[in-house]
Design goal:
The chain has about 500 residues and is mainly alpha-helical. It has 3 domains: about 140 residues; about 170 residues; about 160 residues. Helices cover about 70% and strands about 0% of the residues. The longest helix is centred in the first third of the chain and has 25 residues. The chain is rod-shaped and about 125 Å long.
């Protein structure tokens, strides 16, 4: 069972001094067992506080014409000392949105209790009724911070841009939640639009200073505003839809379209709240910026989380294959189709007779990190060795004379692929003499044995081997390998004789 809250302790939760003093009178009546007086005074304190809150809200630039006119009628009733409480509760629910429907319903019920206590009715409230009235009014109205309007929203946007806005001691979510608690919900669209306009102002300023580095304060302001928009979207489903509705203006502007990339990188679920047209525009921005790490990470996370439709995946896949992106960039994307296409194209260049193409392709593969190399399949690793055997570049010649070096792990998959897919291996028009040199230079003469077995495979047919192959084996191989090569040649000769 919960602890019964102390009324004096509850009074301390009321920030406004006038309202706290007013409610203190109600608490005094309660302790004096004047329960009807306690109820009437408590309700008077709450309605006075609510009336002043709405007045300040309208003064801060928030509220439509309907709210303004209805509140003017409440103020006139207050000045004329006529009843205004019910009208005030009604306008605070709609169109004011200061109270939720359930809160407004509670206040209307308390208003009836207040009327019974204020007029001759035979109503005899007990201590529990009076306490409940005081506690509920404090919780619903008096202990809540004042919610301000458009003026405060614009001031908040100014503060968001400061380096101190997101201290490391607090999460972005908790900071934004605390800031929103002071704002009237009707100001949220203006708040979002104000952030977007500030981003636009920063971008406009950059147009005149494209050659100068971005100032630290400018970088912080931009980063904070993007984080703020993302944090808003994470507060609730309703806010996510609202942020999506207004931030689509980012992708509709050439000046601001790039800002959607860091926004979605940290808040990918926001993509699901965009309409179909905006989603298409976002994908155009991401594809055109794919050479930037943040765009690649964003595309990858959108696909990984299943936020892209099958048609969107196909569209992105086909368009990325047409772009001139490097192998390294392609492998950073979590996009298997692109991996295969780009690796196959690079392997083809490895074996090219165009020396520059071959040199570039070999250098690109050698420069990959171990994490990216791990994305090569067994077949692709085997084909690298086969393609290197026929490449015309100096880099290919170095592999032939010096071995695979940092790519020596490819040799294990080369052996596996010879065994599992001989037809595929033999389909490559490689220079087997160069391949044998690569194997010897890489310290794997055992794989030359495997090649001898491959060349005798039924699918090898009339495979023509360069004479250099056996000269190399005779020069570099041990006696066992040399003997195996001689036996292979004898069998080939015998088979040829018998065929004739």
């Amino acid at each position: 069972m919960g602890r019964l809250r102390d009324l004096e302790e509850l009074l301390l939760s009321i920030e406004d001094e006038n309202s706290r003093d007013y409610m203190a009178e109600a608490v005094s009546c309660y302790h004096a067992e004047a329960y009807r007086a306690a109820i009437v005074t408590a309700f008077g304190a709450a309605m006075d506080h609510l009336r002043r809150r709405v007045s300040e809200l309208l003064s801060s630039g928030t509220g439509n014409k309907d709210l303004q006119l209805r509140f003017e009628a409440v103020e006139k009733a207050f000045e004329d000392q006529r009843a205004f409480e019910r009208d005030l509760v009604d306008l605070c629910e709609k169109p004011g949105n200061v109270l939720t429907p359930s809160e407004a319903k509670q206040l209307r019920a308390l208003l009836e209790t207040r009327h019974l206590a204020a007029h001759p009715s035979g109503f005899q409230p007990n201590a529990e009724t009076a306490r409940s009235c005081i506690v509920t009014l404090i919780d619903l109205i008096l202990a809540r911070p004042l919610q301000l309007g458009i003026t405060e929203a614009k001031a908040l946007v100014d503060r968001v841009q400061l380096a101190t806005f997101f201290p490391e001691s607090h999460t972005h979510q908790s900071i934004i939640k605390a800031e929103l608690s002071r704002l009237y919900q009707g100001t949220y669209p203006a708040l979002i639009l104000s952030v977007i306009e500030q981003l636009r102002a920063l971008s406009e300023a950059r147009k005149d200073a494209t050659l100068s580095p971005r100032k630290p304060a400018e970088r912080v302001a931009r980063k904070n505003m993007i984080a703020f928009l993302g944090g808003l979207a994470d507060q609730s489903i309703e806010l996510k839809k609202l942020v999506a509705r207004y931030t689509k203006r980012l992708v509709e502007s050439d000046l601001l379209s790039g800002e959607v990339i860091p926004l979605l990188e940290n808040n990918p679920d926001l993509y699901g709240a965009f309409d179909e047209l905006t989603r298409g525009r976002v994908l155009v921005v991401l594809r055109s910026s794919v050479n930037e790490g943040s765009a690649r990470r964003t595309l990858s996370v959108l696909r990984k989380k299943g936020l892209l439709t099958a048609d969107e995946v196909t569209l992105v896949s086909s368009s990325l294959e047409l772009l001139s992106i490097s192998l390294s960039v392609a492998l950073e994307l979590d996009w298997p189709e692109l991996h295969r296409a780009r690796i196959q194209a690079t392997l083809k260049d490895v074996g090219s007779w165009w020396r520059l193409d071959s040199a570039r392709a070999i250098a690109d593969i050698q420069a990959l990190s171990s994490e990216k190399i791990a994305k090569f399949t067994e077949r692709e690793r085997a084909h690298f060795i086969l393609e290197a055997g026929r490449g015309a570049s100096i880099e290919a010649s170095e592999l032939v004379s010096q071995g695979l070096g940092i790519l020596k792990d490819f040799l294990e998959d080369f052996e596996k692929h010879i065994i599992s897919s001989p037809v595929d291996v033999l389909s490559v028009q490689t220079n087997w003499a160069s391949v044998v040199k690569i194997l010897f230079a890489s310290g794997r003469p055992d794989l030359v044995h495997a090649c001898l077995g491959l060349w005798e495979h039924p699918v090898a047919g009339d495979l023509v081997l360069p004479k250099d192959v056996f000269n190399i084996i005779e020069t570099k191989g041990d006696s066992t390998l040399q003997e195996a090569a001689l036996d292979f040649q004898k069998r080939r000769t015998q088979d040829s004789t018998s065929d004739n």
